[in-house]
Amino acid sequence: MQTHKVREMFPPERMHTADYLKLLGVPALEALTSPFDPGYDPATLLSHLDQSSHLFSILKISMACWMVANESATRSKVAAAKRFRVPTVTGGGPFEVAVAQGVLPQYLDLCADIGVTRIECGEGFTELRVVPRDVIRMAALRGLDVQFELGKKHTGPFVEDNIQTLIDQGQRWLDSGALQLVVEARENACGVGLFDESGRLNRRFADRFAGAFGLKQVMFEAPNKPSQFALLNHFGREVHLCNVRLEEVLRVEIYRRGLHSDAFAEEKLRPVRKHNISGANPGKPNAQTGHHRLLS
Fold it and tell me: Rounded CA gap, 290 and 212, in Å?
């Protein structure tokens, strides 16, 4: 009995993930996610930078954890971000405490010496006694950029009466030199900012901020899966999300690119191939069965 030797087929050159994403119709995107570090150890942060730094717009060294951790660890994390060419920003809470305690110049000195790129300002739980222009001037003298967070942390969801007030406040900070604005959602996106007590996104209010500032200048805090998916479904893949946990960055980014099972059904997010057979969309779900048509 004659046997036939099976010839193994090898591709002429290596296939890369970027090539395959392009083949799928996934568009090339700029970094649009700002993850936060609530106190990870340096090795964990370094691993996430190695895996996902190309997806980070700016890394938030969040809360005040960086000030009570071993200082060498804090400095090593900021230095690691620099090696991966990822800018860093401190959270807004330490800024508010510094202003309330009358030590803003010293706080800015510390941020500059630690090596962060930017500070976040806000009045989420205090009332500022300084004007935006003065803060930004002081920061600039130390080589620091500024962003401002809109909204209170403890007064519940936004209401109609305060949306325009927040927009006016944000515009004052931008006019004074702030680079971006952040819309508050805390750590749970529930009963705060754009999210009601059950975590539902107020799309009309979200549109007010996007319309006033544009998606390039306003970032939306999205600390959990429902808030992340809701904002991406509403605005599409160009929305800038922040306060995303490091371990959730890749999930956010596959959703943004329409590679998540839920995102694939969203017209705004689903990849579109430029050259489909007979002009068909091979990824469109069948309305009757929910199954996808597969073309060879």
Answer: 38
